[in-house]
Amino acid sequence: MDDQLELQLQNILQKNRIVWGAVLFGMISLILISVALYYLDIIDRLPVVHPQKADNIALFVILFFVLLIFYIKQTILTPAKLIEKSKKPGIELNNLLAPLASDADEKKLTFLKCVQIFNKKMLIVWFLADLVVLTAFVNFILAPVLNKFIMYSFVGLFSLIINFPNLSIYKRVHRYLYE
After folding, report:
1. How many domains does the chain have?
2. Contact at 8 Å (CB) between 29 and 153?
3. Angle between helices 106-142 and 168-178 (to 10 degrees)
4. Of 86-90, 92-96, 142-146, 175-179, which range is least confident?
5. What confidence category does residue 91 fall into, taking pLDDT thresholds of 50, 70 and 90?
6. CA angle centred on 164, ends 55 and 16, rounded to 5°
7. Can you give the residue range of the structural domain that contains 133?
8. DSSP string computed for 81-144
9. HSE of 116 in the Cβ direction (CA atoms, 13 Å)?
């Protein structure tokens, strides 16, 4: 991997980390606001719906989101699948990656497309992790059971934290492509 490409990838990672941090900040803020609402008795502790029914629905929805995250990570975001998707026609590079493609050979162009596909899919993964916490929040508002809310929120936070943007996937795809 040449220096210009690695520098551009670091810039992309920096922007991804800002988005990731914003999602994390939103999740933590929602958790803290919910806990404050509960302990300050601002919300009514009487459930709107039966707590067991709300919990069952929330569990099913959160399980669906977590399994979808797992599916995306295990099947779509592997180096082989990224390269396969990048070779399909109709993929154009965005403004961040287009300047690097001006003097690129076929392998470098494929790699740049892989980076773009990976970034889009990771945004989906982060959004799904955020939806886990939002589902927990809706469940908390409908049936204010704090321990279930905290448990589901930690699942969403864990799903986000383990998907922190780093350079390793780019290096794996680059190594896979150039071997």
Report:
1. 1
2. no
3. 150
4. 92-96
5. confident
6. 110
7. 3-178
8. HHHHHHTSTT----TTTGGGGTT--HHHHHHHHHHHHHHHHHHHHHHHHHHHHHHHHHHHHHS-
9. 20
